[in-house]
Amino acid sequence: MPSRPSPMALQSSSPQPSIFRKKSTPAMSSAASYLSAVSEADARARAHGGTPSSTPALSLSSSVTTSSSDTVLDDPDAEFDDALSYPRNPPTSEQVFTTVHSEFGHCANEQYRFMSQHKPGTPYRSYPEQDPPHYILLTTYLSYLLVICLGHLRDFVGKRFRRSAYRHLLAHDGYAALNSDFDSFYTRRLKTRIDDCFSHPVTGVPGRTILLLDRYSPDYNVTMHPTGTRTRGLNISSYNYLGFAQARGGCADAVEACINRYGVSSCGTRLEGGSLDLHEQAEALVAKFVGQEDSMICSMGFATNSTVIPALVSKGSLVISDEFNHASIRFGVRVSGANVRTFKHNNMKSLENLLREVISQGQPKTHRPWKKILVIVEGLFSMEGTLANLPVIMELKKKYKFYLFVDEAHSIGALGPHGRGVADYFGINPRNIDILMGTFTKSFGAAGGYISGSKALIDGLRLRAHTGTYTEAMTPPVLMQVVASMASIMGISPAPSSNTAVQEVAELERHPGTAPMSLLPSWMPLSPAMVDGSDGQMRLRRIAFNSRYLNRGLRRLGFITYGCADSPVIPLLLFNPGKMAVFSRMMRTRAVPIVVVVVAYPATPLVTSRVRFCVSAAHTKEDMDMVLTACDEIGDLLDLKQGQGERWPLQEIIDRAVELVNMPEDS
Amino acid sequence: MSTTASSLEPLFTLVAQSYETLESTFYKIPGSAVIARYVKSSHRDDPGRTLLEVILIIFAIRTLLQSRTKAEASGKHFIEFSEKEIGELVDEWSPEPLAQPLNEAERAELDSVPVVVGPTGPKPKLANGKTVLNLASYNFAGLAGNQIIKERCIDILRRYGLGSCSPPGFYGSQDVQTQLEQDIADFLGTEDAILYSQAFSTISSVIPAFCKRGDIIVADRSVNFAIQKGLQISRCTVRWYDHNDMESLQHVLESVEKERIKKNWPLTRRFIVTEGIFEHDGVMSDLPKLIELKLKYKYRLILDESVSFGSVGRTGRGLTELYNVPVSQVDMLVGSVANGLTATGGFCAGSHIVVKHQRINGTSYVFSAAMPPLMTVAASEGISVLRNTPSILTTLQENIRVVRAILDKVDCITIPSHNASAVIHINVRTPSSTPAPAQLLSPTPLSPAIPATPLSPSSAKLSNPTSVRPRHPVQFDAELEERLLQDIVDDALAQGVLITRAKRLRDQELIGARPSIRLAISAAMSKKDCEKAANVIKTSCVKVLSRRR
Ligand SMILES: Cc1ncc(COP(=O)(O)O)c(C=O)c1O
């Protein structure tokens, strides 16, 4: 499906993507011309009487963009005029960027910054969920009905005339089918139709941009074959919230040093000889970061939930779970043997009613009181963009005496003025929350997860959770990425030489504080931006701006989105299943391709198929403009602009972005 | 009313059957009121549409009815309280503490966990500054610290960064990950393979991906904890056979078949789930016999090779290589990349169909981020090392032989593990226990030996397949043995040898395995060091266990 702008789109005031190319003067068709553009810009800056440029690059431990070892410069296929590999306005060397533009966008404009924080004293509110017009709902149901009927028809005919193709779906030779035609119906007849939107093979850094390995299917998505070509697209899909997916920069330097020193494995489980000093350092740092007494690290985020929850609750306990909680939480709860009840997503009334019911009724049949009640919510829901309503939950917690488990997989790093997650965002003391869990796969660009809480609790979990006994310990390179990225967000306080011991303890206790040098490996290379915390601050403020800008921009364009305005996860509702594939393909085949995630049933309710954007600190304002432009055009074509509320034309949104972001309340 | 309902029943079921899938998807309808409004308005506009609407309503009503019956089931015990009473009950309720503080023994256990400072390997340095001989860490082929792997990883780091930042379904399928899947499949000789990002979470997702309620699993009584969790999640019918006892397996398969015919069960999926080398005790499965039985009774075989992959066979391909059986006979071969290739993660290898199914149904594959690219490359390099240097596995077997030659002669312990197993479990010998089975003294360790003969006398009645407890459980005092073994571990550490007890969650395992010390032999260690370490362990065992009497 090529992206052909409709007449409507042509009328709009939006610039066509091709304008990007025309505008870029001089045309940067090669690395050499890019470099010369940089020096020209330098010359211009000098002519304007700017301060003489210092020699900033020398003090940095990592290569700057213009170094010849740049990944993109090495890349023979890279296009230099695609607005992805290089910025349209080349930076002057006064603006020192220690990053590669294709991994982490260059954005020096200090206006494009914001702070992610809940306004104290106001209740939490996400956008009210708007229902689409009735004809959209109806056509959605009808299209499901149609594809289901067609699918059954094709199965009916196929089973009679093409038996061999169905052999593995039917019982044969006395074996039941591994996956019967009935069980696999949804996958075969619905998902396969749009399989080109899923599991796309990629290569390289999943940063601001990503390299897709192109593929084609000769048989309607049954098989896929690589074409051998690659396409660089703007990546608004990876969970790279703070932009730490980087092959250059302070974190990568630290990881390289770590691999040289430690190798790549810790060879065993934590309790059976797989514990390294690095584990202990990282755990102390994580505890400091999230503001809890202690923490435990697990080598997989999913397993952090699935192997720890059984150590927290068991038979006779009750878990109260948000209906949209992640599969790993459900897995863990099921293994634990505890009873489960769910409440409606983020609906505090439903939660309170449920609490009153279960506490008064006690355990089923016996009516014995529950041993304990654990409420599990996610900090930021990854398909909805909503935040857990912590202020209310904390009130309920006081009243109903339940324990609270917050899964901060998506919110840690991505929310809050200090990047410490939802508690930070709402200004709640993390120690009042019993268990804070999170993963490193998202904001930190690493892998694995942590669980944190009081020292007594965590010590117990080290022995009683499945993690320490049975799962492989986290590997040194991953640990190092965690430590380096976390230290980068926190900033590093110098070694306490003159401080008294008392001061030192006070410093360790301060939250949200900096990373004490004593918690970092002594050999870890440190870049200046990491030490003074400016790198982390920049990331936090950029993601806050980008999230708010895209969120509000999409609403102003008239789209229906869910969630909170500060959420970096932005679901844009498509409803009709057919629009998912078209949306994804149109985005991918634009002049500047944009890579998006589309999700539908069973990950979402049946009617609310959606595209999910994951905003990153690595994106620039121009990237957000690009996404808005693309959505504007495609939204007109696909009739997606069904939202209510005030609308602005695209150009106005782009021009008044800063104003839009800083507006206190959005209608 | 009820008669019309019952006479309409066939019609209902007919509609329901033809759109059953649709029905299950419609559970999520956001409320019947909306639909009711719809039908009214659309009927006014266009009566032809009403038919479709009616179908939708039928589903909505069914959904409602079903949820009402569910509510009633739990409602039988529902007690009405006034608001005030509820308030009082809420005030009265006081929960147990979330975490019990550690008791003294647990504190001691946590404090005794060794911490390696710097890189791990055959001779790591511990927190107390001492350099020790390491027989605790999984490093079978000695890949830890391999210079080539390090260099490749740094190269990949500089091209891919560290994390994959996405699940495989959404732009997380890095080419290097696909490459590792291909490498594993090629190495083992299967059609395809799928990579999970943690070994422990692999099989506990593989089993429920295939085995649903109503399916039948026949499993060994001594399967590892990850399998136990997989069985628990899958909710299928589980039958147990005695640990590594093929006669018992045959008996169970036979009894299931009889039961099926008697109760006229429909044909469902049937699986045998077992391990290659058992994590609990190092015993090796008799793979040819397993395959013979599974073919005879038409079961599929899920084989967990977490311990054997990368440690047995001429080049480390595991049991299929050792026994020289075609790998296609193992339907789902699960292994650990973390143990076998000293990286991280796990895999399931099998046919295209088996793998493709998991890409949509393997919970911890779908809902978790893909492995970091550099770890997949470390594993790929590991495979190429194994392929190109068969001498590594020979060295490993030599080292195992050296250690066994010393430890097998110690009277106060027993070693249940197979002679070729790189994981060696040491049990305390109860003073009255029977002499070591003949198998342990088998002179040809590389050839697959006869499986351990069941300890129960053949005249005894067979165990009950529906219960995980065997009829003749081995009696032991777990607490006492654990204490003795920990004393041995501590003593060996004082002599400069790092070993560990096999740690287990005794209260959560289905049946408590006998406490043991678990050695992991590495090819990276010299023969002399192996000898030295084994002698230290021997001395410690003798010292601690002779004190006991
Ligand atoms: C809420 C939540 N918890 C846990 C996880 C699992 O984390 P990982 O991908 O690190 O396994 C995810 C990942 O998507 C998640 O969204």
Automatic annotation (TrEMBL), chain A:
Keyword line: Pyridoxal phosphate, Transferase
InterPro entries xref list: Aminotrans_II_pyridoxalP_BS, Aminotransferase_I/II_large, AON_synthase_class-II, PyrdxlP-dep_Trfase, PyrdxlP-dep_Trfase_major, PyrdxlP-dep_Trfase_small
Domain of life: Eukaryota
Annotated region described as Disordered, given as residue ranges: 1-92
Transmembrane feature ranges: none
Bias kind Low complexity: ranges: 51-71
Cofactor: pyridoxal 5'-phosphate
Ranges annotated as biased composition (Acidic residues): 72-82
EC number(s) per entry: 2.3.1.50
Aminotransferase class I/classII large domain span: 234-483, 535-629
Catalytic activity: L-serine + hexadecanoyl-CoA + H(+) = 3-oxosphinganine + CO2 + CoA
Keyword Hydrolase: no
Pfam families xref list: Aminotran_1_2 (PF00155)
Similarity section: Belongs to the class-II pyridoxal-phosphate-dependent aminotransferase family.
Protein name: serine C-palmitoyltransferase
UniProtKB/TrEMBL annotation, chain B:
Keywords for the protein's UniProt record, in alphabetical order: Acyltransferase, Lipid metabolism, Pyridoxal phosphate, Sphingolipid metabolism, Transferase
Domain Aminotransferase class I/classII large span(s) in chain numbering: 131-537
Pfam families the record matches: Aminotran_1_2 (PF00155)
UniProt pathway annotation: Sphingolipid metabolism; Lipid metabolism; sphingolipid metabolism
SUPFAM superfamilies: PLP-dependent transferases (SSF53383)
Cofactor: pyridoxal 5'-phosphate
EC numbers on record: 2.3.1.50
InterPro entries: Aminotransferase_I/II_large, AON_synthase_class-II, PyrdxlP-dep_Trfase, PyrdxlP-dep_Trfase_major, PyrdxlP-dep_Trfase_small
UniProt entry tagged with the keyword Transferase: yes
Family: Belongs to the class-II pyridoxal-phosphate-dependent aminotransferase family.
Name of the protein in its database record: serine C-palmitoyltransferase
Organism placement in taxonomy: Eukaryota, Fungi, Dikarya, Basidiomycota, Agaricomycotina
